[in-house]
Amino acid sequence: MQTKRKPQHSPNTDQSTPKKATPDIKLPRGIRFAYRPDRPNAPFYLYWRKDGKETARGFVDEKTRELAALDLINLRKDFGREIFSFDPAEWRIYQTAMQRIRDAGHEVNLLIVAEEWLKSKQGKAVAAGKTVRVAVEDYEKLREEEGSWGEGAKRHAKTHLSRFAQAFGSLRLNAVGVEEVRRWMRNLAEVKDADGRQVHGPHSIGDHLKNVRTFFNYALRERWGAVENPCAFIKPPKVEDCDPVVIPLRDAFAFFKANKDERVTARVALEAFGAVRYTTAGLIAKDALIFDDKGIRMAAEIHKSGRVDGRARYRQGHPDNLWEWLRHAPEATWRMTALNYREEKRYAWIRAGLRPSANNGETDEKKIASLRNIWRHSFISYHLAAFRNVPLTQYLAQHANPQMTEDYEGIAGHEDALRYFMITPKTVALTWKKFMALPVREVSKPKT
User: Fold this and answer.
1) CA atoms in the 13 A half-sphere facing the CB of 25
2) pLDDT tens-digit readout, 97-114
3) Rounded to whole angstroms, how far apart are CA atoms 216 and 160?
4) Which end of the chain has less Cβ packing within 10 Å, N or C?
């Protein structure tokens, strides 16, 4: 029968490690190895006794654990059985410092380096090591004073850094290393929403890493106690399937047919036939639509770029079918809130049979995630294929440069693109077969 007593390990054998060669190292009494599969981020454990109590630290690999054990053994030889408290972060600092010295082609005792450094700092204040939480607060104040970030960038950075501070707020900056940041990124990837969908995809996690990297660069520059930038050693997550997801023509027809008279449909049309981002489509007021000139005015506070530079945006030259859907909209469309739009859009997908009603597995999760900005991606792809005019598509999509627009070339076919802009309140009253029998009409290129 199993008991709750800790398993006994012989001094030289790591009994619970996988079947792998144990480092050839003679462990003295009071120091032992163990493998903890329940701690996958740092499963290789080193145990030693301090002040009569057993202390333990986990390491990513056996080699690092072996080096730490050798350091403890040497400390015991030099200072007796009263071994100094071992801090993995300090060990990592020591290793990094020594490696930098070796890379420069030198062999120098760190005590000499420390003495020389202290001499150079005589009469100068030495920055105390700050905790992550305090350093984040000081960083945000400094960026505000510099005026070096826009409103959009600031909002995202503060959100990302608040999550970082929540995870490591009480730790000193020099205690946060590569493994800690990697573990934090893994935890972000595991966060799910109420529908079981992944909250932070590769793009989001990469943005978190970028903002934390910038934060550590400032911490190093300001001498807040950081000794390295752990993010500099971490590659951002790989973004797979980076080609835009475009809705098939038949699915687009089915969506608008199933939701022809719903109040949500005109706002979806702003995305599908106007290239408006989904976050903006739920906020546009009716008086922002200039029907006579066929133009759309977007206030700065509801537009992605406007939130950064404070400027409103105006665009005209959209395909005619957009205005047919906007004229078809009931007045209730313009009384919707952004939350109303998000919820009713979800049910519109379900009504058309194009979205799972619940997240029942990985396939459903991918399907749901792909619908988030699909209408805007579809507009750009179909518009390029129909009009074959990169500057016009770039203008309507409000891309910063032509390359962003050109990335969508070749995704949609010319005939499907022409029919995509034939989807109107009148044509969706037809069957799919009769819609496809309509003669394809070339579209004129609107002037901007």
Assistant:
1) 23
2) 777 777 777 676 777 777
3) 13
4) N
Which regions of the chain carry the CATH code 1.10.443? Answer: 249-437
Spatial CA neighbour of 276 closest among 337, 332, 324, 322:
322
What the block records as the tokens of 78 is: 């030099």
CATH class in words for 132-233 = mainly alpha
pTM of the entire predicted model:
0.50
Domain with CATH 1.10.150.130 in the chain: 132-233
Q: Which of 113, 33, 112 is nearest to 72 (CA)?
A: 33
* Tokens 């209730």 -> residue: 332
Tokens of 404: 């962003």
Query: pLDDT by residue (tens digit) across 413-441?
Result: 899 999 999 999 999 999 999 999 999 87
Contacts of 128 (CB under 8 A, 6+ apart): 225
Token pair of 123 as six digits:
């009469």
Q: Which residues of 357-381 are buried (b: 16+ CB within 10 A; e: fewer)?
A: eebeeeebbeebeebeebbbbbbbb
First-to-final CA distance of the chain: 81
The identity of residue 261, as a single letter, is D
CATH topology classification for 249-437 = hpI Integrase; Chain A (1.10.443)
Strands 295-298 and 313-316: antiparallel
Integer Cα distance of 435 and 426 in angstroms: 10
Token pair, residue 68, equals 């730490």
